[in-house]
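Hey, resending since the last one bounced:
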Amino acid sequence: MPSRGKFLRHKYSSRAMRRRTHLRTLETAVYYIGALLLLAAAFFLLRGFLLDTTKRVNISADNVAAFRIPHRAFAQLREHSAEYGVDFAQAATLYSIEHSFFPVKTETPMSVGAFMRNYEDILSSYRERDIEPYHRLLDTLLGEIKCFPIPLGYDIEHYMFGDSWGTRSSGSYIIDRENIRGRIPVVSMTAGIVTEAGWKEKTGFQVIIRTANETYYSYSSLEDHVVGLTPGQVVQPGTLLGFMGTVGQSSVRLYLEIAPQFPPGGRNFRINPHPFLRLVEEERAEVGS
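The structure tokens again:
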């Protein structure tokens, strides 16, 4: 008969072995459960990826800057947005994203009518967070720009301009048809604060205005700027800034640059002013100015 000591050692060693066996079994179960959970997660992620029909938005800042949307399409978007009761800036954003923000001139964009008829489907095909930076950009600019930089009383008989983006400049030239210095006044398109006002060798007299959204509007090649217009001064849409002038041997003109932030809160970059100029010029014509 085994001694009491041997019996107890055997008893407790058996318990320890059973305990270790239970622990190994438990560890094995946890391992397999963990593996199954990982496989299930991987399955659902893959399934979501394969079934995800949302479009990806990956448009370079260069494309956004070029923004060569045809004026007719831009104007129709404004008109149809009002008819359909949708936000113009959002409609313009989706339409532009569908065309990679029009990096080059095109004569055959998607029909605006067809776009508006499928607007809700197109909107739902994108993630809101993906289109939000582009929407905020256009919403900012369309909200800031209130008037054409040439005041009422002057029309296309007095000036001319076209889309010069990517050829001669990163802005727009508005040219005096009669080439007379100091003849055509220049006004602010927006509300804001003057950050610079004075002469520069390369730009002539220049006035730069910063809006509340940190967008910079630069008016260059002026004959002179208004006396008393100094940094820190608040201006409103329509405030007189100066008159068309020249730099060197150039024609009499205004040179306009618009530099918003993109993405919002990011760096400032120059965007093509031409579509916005055409839009506010047309608005002015519609009210009989």
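Residues 48-52 have pLDDT under 50 and may be disordered.

Sorry for the duplicate.
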